[in-house]
Write a structure and sequence with these properties.
Elements lengths: L2 H14 L19 E7 L31 E3 L2 E3 L5 H8 L3 E8 L5 H10 L9 H9 L7 E3 L12 E3 L6 H5 L3 E2 L2 E5 L3 H19 L6 H16 L4 H6 L10 E2 L5 E2 L1 H14 L4 E6 L8 H26 L5 E7 L2 E2 L11 E2 L1 E8 L7 E3 L1 E2 L5 E2 L18 H11 L6 H4 L14
Parallel strand pairs: 1-11, 1-12, 4-16, 5-6, 5-11
Antiparallel strand pairs: 2-3, 4-15, 7-8, 9-10, 12-15, 13-14, 17-18
Length: about 425
């Protein structure tokens, strides 16, 4: 029996025996074993007043949240949360491993500007994502160091990204010598492939020595050369990738939103386990609820927390949870009131969430907003409310702190993209 078929049989035998969601295991001898990063880009603007910065209704003011007419703010450990969607199950399970940063001022109500600001650290375009920076420092030699499911995926030419949009075809791309209709047959003998690869690499090396190349041409040839060099490392990933019918399904979350968030996470985590990837952006739409806010936002938030639970459950099964940091955020937030269509519009003050197993900074909330969800200044050194010497928290502050926490702040690639927001805020003490 082929090794892949044997692994698959073991997987499904474990599930049938009631042992839970088993996963295939593999690790190349020289596989990457450093830190791992996932950013979860919640697209459209999430309502944090119904999630991690809960707001009750105020007498004489417009209703902020319908749930607050009958429910009260709940708390898991030190983290308050709204009794909405599946928040209780999520926070009670993960509060010890979670840091919430509230009162983050995106300085915009524009989706495009909010996305750029939150995921790069500045409002104008051109800066890379944290995941791209981390991949350029820790995994430039990896064949799929940085993978992306969409959203903001700027690399600033530091590293290339691999799209997660078509995982069904990824195995065929990796095993290009196998006929799709008969996996036992090959197009060419391995000796022929080795000779072809030898001549391809020699040709690319010769092309790189030419002096008449433009910078863009040189970058393209160099990228392709590196991809050819690292192609053999993908063989382990091909063995781990599930068949198409074993991929997480596209989920119909609301009447208008289908999500592949769990599928993106599934493929990214398998890449982590195989040692060919180390940073991933996974992306979900559906949070721009200008009408029927509660009806759409509740299932979307529930889908988000269920997907995060899936990430950590699978990371544990694959043996990579101890190295993983997850960053969850959005363009901005929703208004602290409903509009005439029972929706909520754009609001610049939002939140960010970080998760790490056994983190020293877990079970904490930093940043404050008032009853009307307006940001309150905090002291950059103490991170406590300070009306005299304090200032607002900006997405750039979060990106700066993440660079330090990730251990990449002093690398030349990072220094080429400085973020100047004022005094440094260390959220990960």
């Amino acid at each position: 029996m082929k090794r892949r078929a044997l692994l698959k049989l073991a997987t499904w035998s474990a599930i049938g025996a009631g042992l839970g969601p088993a996963f295939k295991t593999y690790a190349a001898d020289d596989a990457y074993t450093g830190p791992l990063f996932i950013t979860v880009q919640v697209s459209g603007g999430w309502d944090v007043t119904s999630f991690c910065d809960p707001k009750a209704n105020q007498p004489g003011e417009s209703i902020i949240n319908n749930w607050a007419t009958t429910g009260e703010i709940q708390q898991a450990g030190n983290i308050p949360y709204a009794p909405f969607a599946a928040n209780q199950a999520f926070f009670e399970k993960y509060y010890n491993d979670t840091l919430i940063i509230n009162g983050v001022d995106a300085q915009t109500n524009s989706h495009s500007a909010g996305v750029t600001h939150n995921w790069s650290g500045r409002l104008s375009q051109g800066y890379p994502t944290l995941t791209a920076l981390a991949a350029s420092v820790y995994g430039p030699q990896l064949p799929m160091g940085y993978v992306s499911g969409g959203g903001y995926q700027e690399t600033a030419h530091l590293v290339r990204y691999t799209s997660l949009s078509d995982p069904e075809g990824l195995r065929e791309l990796i095993n290009g010598n196998i006929t799709t209709w008969n996996a036992a047959n090959s197009y060419r003998f391995q000796s022929d492939l080795d000779r072809i690869k030898q001549y391809q690499l020699a040709r690319l090396q010769a092309m790189l020595l030419r002096e008449d190349l433009t910078p863009r041409q040189r970058n393209g040839i160099s990228t392709y050369y590196e991809a050819r060099l690292s192609r053999d490392q993908l063989s382990g990933l091909a063995e781990l990738l599930p068949d198409n019918d074993e991929l997480q399904p596209r989920q119909q979350v609301t009447a208008t939103t289908r999500s592949t968030l769990m599928r993106q996470a599934q493929v990214a985590l398998i890449g982590f386990q195989a040692g060919v990837s180390m940073a991933a952006d996974i992306h979900v739409n559906g949070f721009d609820t200008h009408s029927d806010h509660d009806a759409d936002h509740e299932p979307m938030l529930e889908h988000l927390t269920e997907s995060l639970d899936y990430v950590w459950t699978m990371a544990e099964e694959l043996g990579v949870a101890d190295r993983l940091t997850v960053f969850v955020g959005s363009d901005f937030a929703r208004t602290p009131r409903y509009n005439s269509s029972d929706g909520k519009d754009h609001w610049p003050i939002g939140s960010a969430m970080f998760m790490q197993k056994g983190a020293s900074w877990g079970n904490r909330v930093i940043g404050v907003t008032d009853e009307g969800h307006n940001a309150i200044n905090v002291n950059p050194a103490t991170l406590t409310v300070d009306d005299v010497n304090g200032r607002r928290i900006y997405p750039g502050d979060i990106q700066r702190a993440m660079r330090v926490a990730a251990g990449i702040d002093s690398h030349a690639n990072t220094l080429a993209f400085p973020i100047n927001t004022g005094d440094y805020m260390d959220f990960f003490l």
